[in-house]
């Protein structure tokens, strides 16, 4: 099965940040180059990060809000580049800014009732290559409670560490681990049900 449902062993107590990938390093280098102020480097930074920022914001809010929020996020990031010291990856830094933008937007809209529909499909589409696998994973994830799905998508699909996911979701790391564990159990149950239904269909 394409979804890894085996529980990860608990990480030992540590303050070490999650290991960066080659892509993290590439994007961080782009951010550091943009910090130097070259117009071409700033443009490359925006072009590299905009799609992922947009998908992340669409996941946290909705596709209609994501356009404006992505622009706001990148404007804040460009303003903060002189202070970016690469202590974390540029991706984690930028997604943390995106989350703060969402929080600020929610506060702004608090006086006016509005409904946000979490659109996590873009994250799945970006991270899962095969169309059949994307469809299957999307259908399975639709059966999860929102909190479980967000924790699972961030850590198991988007590839963030538990600490990064906890920071982005604004909850303790233990809560993220608990939600991911519960999501795995629910997904196992959904997979078993789907496989049994397929067997019953063939028999009939």
Automatic annotation (TrEMBL):
Residues of the RNA polymerase sigma-70 region domain: 45-110
Keyword line: DNA-binding, Sigma factor, Transcription, Transcription regulation
UniProt entry tagged with the keyword Magnesium: no
Gene3D superfamilies the record matches: 1.10.1740.10, Winged helix-like DNA-binding domain superfamily/Winged helix DNA-binding domain (1.10.10.10)
Domain RNA polymerase sigma factor 70 region 4 type: 136-187
Matching PROSITE patterns: SIGMA70_ECF
Disordered: region residues: 1-22
Gene Ontology MF terms in the entry: DNA binding; sigma factor activity
Gene Ontology BP, a term: DNA-templated transcription initiation
Source domain of life: Bacteria
Pfam families reported in the protein's UniProt record: Sigma70_r2, Sigma70_r4_2
Signal sequence, renumbered to the chain: none
NCBIfam families, per database record: sigma70-ECF
Record family assignment: Belongs to the sigma-70 factor family. ECF subfamily.
The protein, known as: RNA polymerase sigma factor
Phylogenetic placement of the source organism: Bacteria, Bacillati, Actinomycetota, Actinomycetes, Streptosporangiales
